[in-house]
Task: structure prediction
Amino acid sequence: MFAHPSQQSLSATICRTAVAALARAGHEVNLIDLYADKFVAKMSRDERLAYETDSPILDPLVGRYAAQLALAEGLVFIYPTWHGSFPAIMKGWFERVFVPGVGWALDPVTNKASGGLRATRRVVGVSTYGSSRLHTMRMADAGRRVVKRNIRFLAPKTTCRAKWLGLHGLDRPNAQRIARFLAKVDHAMVHL
Amino acid sequence: MRVLMVRVHPVRESLLQAAGDRAANAIARAGHELRQLDLYADGFEPIVSEEEWRARNSGARLTPSLQFYADALDWAEHLVLVYPTWFGGFPAMLKGWLDRVWVSGVVNEVVVGSRRTRSRLRHITRLTVVTTHGGSKFMNSLGGEPGRRMVRRRIRSLCSRRCRPRWVALYGNDRCAPAKRVEFLDSVERRFAG
Result:
């Protein structure tokens, strides 16, 4: 999953690096570029009302994403951290796609919820930050928490691991650190 | 006190919008000045477009059509956020409002002769959140409550140093008794009375 408005951004470079590394390692890659797909971030009134019914998916594009999610063994999220969290387009993707039946399912007998990402064995978040690592920690790093906890919780496999790669301090960019980070992303994807 | 209430919920007849109404009534009764923003009713677009991102990268500040929201922030002394907690935090709509409106020049400015920035929202002395969580308090604390952290740290750090965020939350809304919802609405009203 990739979310950045510009293909000339560092996030886009990271995404291309990750896709190339995954392909080189022999993985099958399915890239969802939310801006290219013109994804609508806001959950509509009709969708909110349908959320609690048996057919919560109204938009065919969301249905396509849900089908891809059900098959995914690894999930990689690449986005810039804005205001400590996801860009709205990616936050909206979670809200609209991870509906009951996709993100989790209620067991009709026990009435207990269980995670819907049955095939998922790896969850990786890759993000860029304008501020320093210290400042990010002080501001609680909400996006990282959602990826490492909320998303990870939706994968029932106990062997599923979540990993986080963050590049901090881009308000004062440093070409050497960026190159090092790209190498790190490449390594993480090859050894997924 | 000048109170700015930001509401975010697509369904007007939802519990959360009802909580917003109760809060608005209580605020008006207590004699405060109230301004309300309903992002869904406004048809606000939460996505930062490519042009906007480019413009901001080359030094432009707020997109002119959003000046209205920046003025509301300048005006407010008490900020009230009314939103459902989805996926641990702010709905995309509210996150997009931060992404597009809470930009450099609106929420902070560079100090002359230095690289440091200074907040422009220090006049906000009160911050209150009214929210509903589908899951239980326990499940939410396992998730680490990213939305709550975002308010407590990120947003609070821009407000007045005396500002202590106040929280009115309903947990377990997915399967709670109607009486608990009534009690939630009452507690919202009590919180804003006086």
In short: Chain B has one domain: 2-192.
